[in-house]
Amino acid sequence: MALLLVADFDLRKDVLPWLRAQRAVSEAAGAEGGGSDVLENNYESLRVLNVERNGNIIYTYKGDKGNIFFGLYDCQTRQNEHLYTFEKDLQVVSCSVNSERTLLAASLVQSTKEGRRNELQPGSKCLTLLVEIHPVNNVKVLKAVDSYIWVQFLYPYVESRPLPENHLLLISEEKYIEKYRIQVTQEDGNRVVIKNFSHLSRDRIAEDFVWAQWDMSEQRLYYIDLKKSRSILKCIQFYADESFNLMFEALLDISLSDSGFKLVNFGCDCHQDQEKLSKHLTLCVFTNHTGSLCVCYSPKCASLEQITYSVLYIHKGHSKTFTAALGSAGSNVTKGITFLNLDYYVAVYLPGHFFHLLNIQHPDMICHSLFQTGNNEMIDMLPHSPLQSLSGCLVLDCCSGKLYRALFNQSYLLRFLWNTRLDCEKMAALHCVLSCGRGLRVLEGQIIQWVSENVSACHSFDLIQEFIIASSYWSVYPETSNVDKLLPYSSVLTWNTEIPGITLVTEDIELPLMKVHSFKGYWEKLNSNLEYVKYTKPHLHYNNSVVRREWHNLISEEKTGKRRSTAYVRNILDDAIKVISNLEARNLEPRLTPLLQEEDNHQRLLMGLMVSELRDHLLRHLQGVEKKKIEQMVLDYVSKLLDLICRILETIWRKHNLHSSILHFKGHGGAAEFAVFHVMTRILEAADSLFLPLPPGFHTLHTILGVHCLPLHNLLHYIDSGLLLLTETAVIRLMKDLDNTEKNEKLKFSIIGRLPPLIGQKICRLWDHPVSSNIISRNHVTRLLQNYKKQPWNSMIDKSSFRVEFLPLNYFIEILTDIESSDQALYAVQGRDNVDAEFVEEAALKHTTMLLGL
């Protein structure tokens, strides 16, 4: 299955053996202690009550005489500790312990059995008690009311020292929340007692709310109150100094007027009738460290054929409402819908029906989220009992007493990539795998294997493009979270294809009203996200349009010989050198393919231009990030692009077991070379569409394989359409490797005719052939005569100085000789390759002889 639930804690394995050992010790001592009257048939009463911020787990169980025992499991030491025993037959509603384990707060319901009355507070339904744990065991009644009460200690981030004051939240079924300040003092060594219990200070935090959720990791309280039937979501942040602030108010387009009263994550609530979960709304708030804020909501299920749920991406300014088909009409929904927080994703899970992984960082396109129906094996592999999503990807199964850590199942997702036929599922699974972050290079290697064998498998998007863009994004994203607004996440800009089994409606929503003006940490990132939504149009994602324009300008200047300042070009090429050095430093294995071994100035210019433009883009929009860090991030990003291309080639090269012997133009290509040529052509198309640089040496290798694999007319068609780019290195090697057979001469001549003039002239000097001599002569004459002004000439020509009595040629050669002698500086430059009037004369005679067939 795509989701892997790894058990961090299991009541049956981590607590039960300890209880049995305690009972054995007590029986051996012949006394009743903390766990002495726990009999085997009472182990079924063992259940989790709460998970505190530090990860410690509070649990309870009933003794044989009905006594209520409270225990704590320390997640750091993996040890159990007995906290307290109530020698009364009571039902536990809620429980919390302070960080020093000196105070226990518990809310208990009085027994309703006939003849049993609670002696602590007669006449009241629910007791809220404060217990001094160590060593006094003194019990104080905080509240005795007829409504249910839930309790939760605050856990500030402080040094490991006793706090003089503890803070306790009380949440009442009567729809109010209070915060108690409990001062403690140390007496007689280790005794910790409450000071002035009868005069405890308290603050009213909220009232008239209908829903509340506790975030134990971030110490935040979310709640919704109704104003004129409008649902207002509010959030209170509690700080280390025990102060608190109302952070925001957000209007939700959700009807809660008849939903009753509901709490989320205030301990493990086992009092809800699980059979009725499907008939009640489900609502929860999820955040992560990048500043995301999502409200997940599913109304009452009124249909047996479909179910509707919504996710309000408040940090993005819009909501998405999904309607999922439930299969046949007789398919009953016996369980409630579950939302799970998975950091960059939210999972929506309906046991036996569907599993939906929603991308909350980039929710704009549905293809980046993975939807699977009950026909998939993974649906039945997840627990069917209700799951409670806590902070930090923790998931609590109250029924089994297990605390899980939710992770993506990488091996399953990779298998799914190989087997699925739908483009939308390939896209979503690819992004899920890359977001894992664990062993990314190994994962990339497995994905590259899949990509290299399925380059043409996707019709809705270019697989190579998507992999390169997505993997490069995830390689730098963890360093700076705001990069998600500045770097492309996907090569796909729009998606209009429907996802089978689900429909979607997207709506804009009102942005929350922030109630404070100074932000730190998460709140600074959330505010940045909201500001981006509010003020940034269009979006700021980087693209290579400026690079494309500037690169074409530089290439045009090179062809005309009018290159701008050498310092500008040198800086661009220096950036390219940094990228290649960065790339080589990260590569630990020798490469089989001959990449990064030649100059290829065109690709180096493109590489350096991308570094320059991307660096300027990030410096312009990434506020508060050091310039040095941004520069390194840019080098890493561009290096990653090139590295992925190199690794795709390495993979296909190894698969077909190619050798260095193919790096010569002689011979013909087989099936293996054609397969590599096909993949390289797809890489070139992908890079050209996004205007991405390719590793120096790529075009040379591609040309060699093209000559091996393609007939001449196809080869020339590839060159003319831009699918094969001729490099100077490739053409020089071709001229040297191939002899002057009729077939090879035709190939060489066709290649030379397609080269830029400057490179063509250089190549002609390396080919000892009448055709090349003719070209050289024409170029020489063109240079000599381009500024020629006709002068009066002596009509008498000395015929003895010429080898042939052909007056037009003799006259022409004399003009050239005169120009050469009159401008020795020009001739010193032009004639450095032994090209002069005599060479031109000889070439002309040879060419004429060939034309006449003599």
Automatic annotation (TrEMBL):
Domain Gamma-secretase-activating protein C-terminal: start-end pairs: 642-749
GO CC aspect terms: trans-Golgi network
InterPro entries (UniProt xref): GSAP_C_dom, GSAP_fam
Gene Ontology BP, a term: positive regulation of amyloid-beta formation
Signal peptide: none
GO MF annotations in UniProt: amyloid-beta binding
PANTHER family from the UniProt entry: GAMMA-SECRETASE-ACTIVATING PROTEIN (PTHR13630)
Protein name: Gamma-secretase activating protein
Species this protein is from: Propithecus coquereli (Coquerel's sifaka)
